[in-house]
Amino acid sequence: MNEDVFNASLRKFLKKVGITSQREIEKAVRDAMEAGRLKGNEKLPAKMVLTVGGVNLTHEVKDEIELG
Questions:
Q1: What is the pLDDT of residue 32?
Q2: Across the strands, what pairs with 46?
Q3: Chain segment 26-55, per-residue pLDDT in tens
Q4: How far apart are CA 20 and CA 35, in angstroms?
Q5: What's the confidence (pLDDT) of residue 30?
Q6: pTM of the full predicted structure?
């Protein structure tokens, strides 16, 4: 395994996950605010599940996203 290639590819993947996830969450929250489904002071339960094929990895992260 080439460590440099692996690390660069992993960083690229994680950056893409972070950026696209943030955009999707922001859009969903704005849409819910505009529709009146959220007041703006909630704490939203959040869960991210990462799976990587070929190595049988499933990793789950749970937390809350606080709106205000």
A1: 98
A2: 63
A3: 999 999 999 999 999 999 999 999 999 999
A4: 23
A5: 98
A6: 0.89
Contact status, residue 23 vs residue 46, Cβ threshold 8 Å: no
The one-character DSSP state at 36 is T
Structure tokens at 8: 């660069």
Amino acid occupying residue 21: S
φ/ψ of residue 65, rounded to 5 = -110, 115
Pick the closest to residue 28 from 46, 53, 4 (CA basis). 46
By the 10 Å C-beta count (0-12 exposed, 13-18 middle, 19+ buried), 56 is classed as exposed
Beta strand segments in 1-68, E: 43-52, 57-66
Q: Hunting for tokens 């922001």 — which residue is that?
A: 26
